[in-house]
Design goal:
This protein is an alpha/beta fold and 299 residues long. It folds into 2 domains: 235 residues, 3-Layer(aba) Sandwich (Rossmann fold); 34 residues, no CATH class. It starts with 9 loop residues before the first helix and ends with a helix.
Length: 299
Amino acid sequence: MAHVADFLKPADLQKISNLQVVARLVVEGYFSGLHKSPHKGFSVEFAQHRQYVHGDEIRRLDWKVFGKTDRYYIREFEEETNLRSTILLDLSGSMSYAGEGRASKHDYALRLTAALAYLMLQQRDSVGLVTFDRALRRIIPPRSGVPHLRLLLDELQGAQPGGETSLAKVFHDLVPRIHRRGLLIIISDCFGDVSELVSALAHFRYAKHEVLIFQVVDKDELEFPFRQFTRFESLETEGAFRQLDAAQIRAAYLENLATFQKQLADGCARHRIDFVQMTTDRPFADALAQYLTRRLNRA
C-alpha cells in the first residue's frame, strides 16, 4: 500500500501544507464558502477550526479561540468542503524522458499529482484521477477522505508511462463522462497538435469546467543542448529512431517550439485557462507553492 511519504518528502510537505487550491470560477457542488458555488440556501454546520493563512476572510476568524491561544484560527463549515476536482495525468511514452541527472517527467508528474491530491483532500474537498495515453486508462471519480487518498496513491504507484499521445481525442472523449462541473487539473507535457488540443480544452470550458494546466517539461526539450550527430529514439513508438545532425536542426527546432508554446499559451488565455510550465530541474514543491500563492491572491 502506498503512502504519502512515497511521493512527498517532509520538506515538500512543509512548503505546501499551508497553501490552498481554490476555485477561481464558479463551480458546481453541494456547498459554497471557500469556493464559489451556483447553489444557494444550504444549511451551515460547523465542522472544525484550521489555522489562518494569508487570503482568508478576516470575518471568519474565531476571536474566542484567539483570546485563549493568541493564535489566529478560521471557523470552517460543512458548506466549505465541496470543490470537485479531477486530475488528468498523462502516462504517454514521452513523459518517461529524463535529462542527465534529472528525474523523468513521469516521476515529477507523479509527485505533483500526489501533492495536489493531498492538499485538496486536506482542505476537505473531493479529488478524482484520470490516467491516459492514447486513450483513457483509468477513471477514479472524485471522493474525499483518507481512504480515498490511499486509493489515489496506490494508483499512482502502479502507473507506468507508455503508448502514444492523443490528448485531444482523450479530452473530447472525457467530457461526457464528467457529469458535474468542477476543476480539471491537467498534468502533461502537452506535446501534440496544438490546434486540436486547444479545441479540446475549449470543449472542457464549454462544459463549464474550470481548467488548470501544468505543463511538465525537461530542460533539454526547451534548450535542445545537443550539438553533434545524435540518435533520437521515439519514446512512443518502439524501435523508431532517427540519426540527425543536432547542430543543423537546432535553430528550426527552437523556432517551432517557440511557435508551439505561444499558440498553446494564447489558446489557454483565450479560454481563461491557467497555464503553468514546470521544468524538472526545479523542485516541484517550490514551483507549486509559488503558483498557488499567486492563484490565491488573484481568486
